[in-house]
Amino acid sequence: MTRKQLRYLFLVLLLLSLGSHPVDAVESLTVEQAVKTALERNPDLLAIRQEVEVARGREVRSRLFNRFNPSLNGQAWNRNNPGSGNESDFQVTLSQEVEVAGQRGLRREAATRSVTRVEAQVKDRERVITGQVTRAFFQALTLKKRLELRKEIEKLNLRIRNASKARFKAGVAPIMESNLAEIRYGQSRKETFVAEALFQNALVDLRRLLGWEPDRSIELSGQLRNSPKAVLLPDLLQSAQAQRPDLIAAKREVARVKAAMDLTRRLIVPNPTFQGFYQTETEGPEGASKIVGGGVSIPLPLFDRKQGELVTQGGELNRSRHQVVAVTRNIEREVETAFQAYQAALQSVEVFEAEVLDRIDENFRFIEISYREGKIGLLQLIVVQDDLITAQLSYVDSLGQFRAAETNLAQAVGGQP
Predict the structure, then answer these.
(1) Source organism's superkingdom (predicted)?
(2) Which pLDDT does position 362 carry in this prediction?
């Protein structure tokens, strides 16, 4: 193959590779994918997960065979004897402190309790992040629907403006009507720009929660309307009591403090330190001698009997018990409040769908046809159109509020209600 043919083949392959990987490809995103991505990439969540590694490091240390390293001490000295001259002696001492009275087991239990508490705290942070991402997703989806509606309204006002110009040119409508239609169209274009800006800002917030680049293209996939489940407040309260991670973390903190107090009480028992030494002694009538010996030292707990630590931990224990009660009451309040908001939002959607929604699109068609045929004037059309636009936007907002209420209820329960 010639050099020219190789260059040509390289160009073809390069173009094919660029074509198969478009730089500005739009990525479709569902709410489930958004939550999964946030749990994997959210910077705040990634940072707090390191607390688990910190706690596990303490647990690893608690599992050591002995947390005290042996101590090796060596001494050497030179002696000048008048009869024999300079002589050298040395001594080597090895000492080891040993934990007694089951301190190692209690230390391991306290460290394990700490790990489980931190893991529950991380789970609670995941619960909060999941709620934030879900709300942000449906907020962006709501603003997307509003933007689509604003664009449809802009198209409608464009048709009405063109019809007004035609009526004015035909001599059946005054210039004021044509000007008013032009103003109306300009106002609708401005509302479209505002809706576009709000939607893009919502996408920025969503990308931040996902840990994505600010310029990453997203196409939201999903529906605001879903099939709501029938839920009962007592069942929700029971589920929340069983699965809320912050309540689990509060209870595990009580267990951790208890384990720490048991360890502190056991630490009052002093640890013995065993010693062994080897020494050479050259002074004496018989010449050099070797001495091997050992000993044990035990500190006497006469003054420091961990009084301060026990008082501090007693306060921590009472605080953690009160915290369990406080978290329980907060959960009950959150669930009840979220349940009432969920029921109200659901009723609002049902009222729109039962009494309003089917009539809106039909009335839009009627007023436009009536205006084109001269059966109604522009002022009457504007009044009716404003009412219909308000109703449409209110329905979209009610769907968004229902999704937010549904998310708040799931977050309050600690999972799917």
Answers:
(1) Bacteria
(2) 66
pTM over 0.90: no
- Collapse the DSSP code of 173 into the 3-class scheme (helix H, G, I; strand E, B; otherwise coil) and give the result: coil
Q: Is residue 346 part of a domain?
A: yes
- Measured at the CA of 265, the angle between CA 262 and CA 270, to 5 degrees, comes to 130
Residue 393 lies in a domain: yes
Q: How many residues does the chain have?
A: 417
Query: Distance between CA 32 and CA 29 in Å, rounded?
Result: 8
Work out the average pLDDT over 176-190.
88
Tokens of 217: 């293209």
DSSP summary character for residue 267: H
77-82 long-range contacts, Cβ below 8 Å, gap at least 24?
79/282, 79/283, 81/283
Q: Tell me, what's the pLDDT at 23?
A: 44
Average pLDDT, stretch 256-274?
93
Q: In what order do the strands lie in the sheet with 273-281?
A: 71-81, 85-97, 273-281, 289-297
CATH number of the domain to which 406 belongs: 1.20.1600.10
Closest CA to 335 of 227, 234, 224: 234
Domain that includes residue 160, residue range = 24-63+99-268+305-413
Q: Please count the structural domains in the chain.
A: 1
Residue 130 domain-assigned?
Answer: yes
250: in domain: yes
State the CB neighbour count (10 A cutoff) for residue 131: 18
* pLDDT tens sequence across 279-301: 887 765 555 688 899 999 999 98
Contact present, 59 and 115 (Cβ < 8 Å):
yes
